[in-house]
Design brief:
Layout lengths: L7 H15 L5 H9 L3 H8 L12 H8 L3 H14 L26 H24 L1
Helix pairs in contact: 1-5, 2-3, 2-4
């Protein structure tokens, strides 16, 4: 399927996601695939304006976290996603069965090391939740 056959609203949010991914460090696509429980080809499909494959709503929050969207990037992406898929996403406070906890972690002395630790903790929790939900 050519990009021209993919609806413009879908192409728009996929272009935004691709821009974010392209501006992140090497390995981000693989970390995203791992966090989503998929493979890199799925990440390529959901970030390519040439593919009609929509981003599943339940993956949005994980994508935002793993890719470290800035507030401006997040707002623009969510507006584009909502335009392409009206009434699909629930507001954060409407998501039933979720809760937030706060952790205190050591400061490792560098922004990179702290970010890697944060990502590792997020990935571990997502993996544990996914395992528990499969049972």
């Amino acid at each position: 399927m050519t990009a021209s056959r993919v609806p413009k609203p879908i192409r728009h949010y996929k272009e935004l996601l691709r821009q974010v991914l392209d501006s992140r460090p090497s390995g981000t696509r693989q970390r995203l695939a791992t966090a989503l429980g998929t493979n890199r080809s799925f990440v390529s499909q959901i970030s390519s304006p040439s593919y009609r494959v929509a981003i599943p709503t339940h993956h949005i929050e994980t994508i935002m976290q793993v890719c470290h969207f800035s507030p401006a990037e997040k707002a623009e992406f969510l507006a584009a996603y909502d335009a392409a898929h009206p009434d699909q996403r629930q507001p954060a406070d409407a998501r039933a069965g979720q809760r937030t906890i706060q952790l205190t972690l050591p400061d490792l002395g560098s922004a990179r090391a702290n970010r890697l630790l944060d990502e590792a903790v997020h990935d571990m929790v997502r993996s544990i939740v996914r395992i528990l939900q499969e049972k």
